Amino acid sequence: MDFSYPAEAEQFRKELRTWLTANLTEEVKDADRVRGRDADAFDTLAAWDAAVADAGWGAVSWPQEYGGRGATVLEQLVYAEETTRARAPVPLNVIGMNNIAPAIMQYGTDTQKTTLLPRMVRADDIWCQGMSEPEAGSDLASLRTRAVRDGSGDGADFVVNGQKIWTSLGHRADWCQLYVRTDPEAPKHKGISCLIVDMRLPGIEARPLVTLNGAADFAEVFFNDVRVPADALLGPLDAGWRVATTTLSHERAGAARLYAQVEVLLADLVADLAGHTVGGKPVLEDGATLRRLGDLAVRIKYLELLCKRSISATLHGGDALGSASLAKSVWAELGQDLAELAFDVLGSDSCGQRWVDRRLSSRSLTIAGGTTQINKSITATRVLGLPR
Length: 388
Prior knowledge:
The protein has about 400 residues and is of the alpha+beta class.
């Protein structure tokens, strides 16, 4: 691992920090804490996304022609560190900006690029990604939602039938990047296509899913004879697998958010523990608690090393995927262990209520964004060189 922050990146940090200090309010931070459980909070976060975009900080990693800043890898690293440590909310369209937008940039028409991308970064339109199904979670190639072409020429449609589940913001979305099976006779990963679907089309029903912590950030989405215009195809027909694995993603330093986020959580926990006693004794003088906190602190430094190794590989033309996958697994386990410690010590009293929420939501960390099992397989093959 070999990189340092050049003067340009430090100037970038200074400008960003100044803007965040002047504009990031407690109201916005409070809205982020109840994301998914409060309609007013959603509106506050959407307004924040618009303000961030209008100030030029909404999509720093995107090329300038699409409204970004064309930030370098190290500037992206600075951005992830500073926004996380300032407790700035991640965008409502974070999946769209990191995953869907790069595919539109590579495969979309000029009209799609110029109309959809600016509205995405401002959260004028909310996006969801239709991948997971009841019988196809991490295994995208097993999806069964069908799209059958009806008609020819400009009047042709795809008729879509099927179901998606665990669709982030599916019940709030205006648009969906939808993966469908268009050739059931082809090998599983070769018969998939990608459609850009207007979620207001007749035949679409989105039902919110309430998770353990009471949040409704996900939905199950049903498609019943939905007629999607054929020109909504993103990329070539039956090439959806290629679209899904697009490597154009300009968010090349997003791993920094992993260690920075857990650093912030640990600092918050220590602050909450500082005024807490057990049996009349300050909890921060309890040896067992201190050992658990120390273990977390050391593992966070290890996670930072993993993340920066991945970023360094990006800088120097190496393989960043293996270390990034391992970092995601370490981050997920850290998040669960930190939430467990907080709940063990603080319980459900007024000081510990936010940690109750985090304890419940932390169970998803080893599933969301790639399961631990999938990431361990990537680590085994890409880092350790084991056979598939």
